[in-house]
Amino acid sequence: WRNILGLSAITALGFALLPSNAVSQQKSLKEQLVGVWTLASNEVIAPNGTKRQDFGANPKGILILDAGGRYALVQGRPDRPKFTAGNNVRVDTPAAEFGEAARAFAANFGTWSVNEADKTLTRRYEAALIPNAEGSETKVTVSLTGDELKLTGADAVGLRTDAVYRRAK
User: Fold this and answer.
1) The pLDDT of residue 138 is above 80
2) Of 18, 32, 43, 77, whose CB count within 10 A is highest?
């Protein structure tokens, strides 16, 4: 009995010294994605290989994914021209100025889900800066390494978008 008790104590001590994630089960992809992410880069690649950065070289943005399946995304160029009127009232801004400001900005919210098997994230748009997107959904491939999230998607005309986010601290 002493040998069995001694062996049990040594085994228990060994498990106690292991890192907690080695003993506990790995979190699901959805659980790992939940949180607040800040945009690090956003690049659009055409089928011919041409690249562009719609939100500039140092874009600003945030992606919020909550545990209940809701999301909000806002991103934009930090160097967008200010309105000439100098006010913050969008209804008083000339349409042409407002349109140019909107071209370098994206915002939408809705619901999200994950396909664990193929590592994809699907967002369903409830409302968006571009009204035509409302009611639609996008599916992107997820690559998660530590606190860096890369979302890669393609549209109907073959444009690929690579968006890189970092977990907000």
Assistant:
1) yes
2) 77
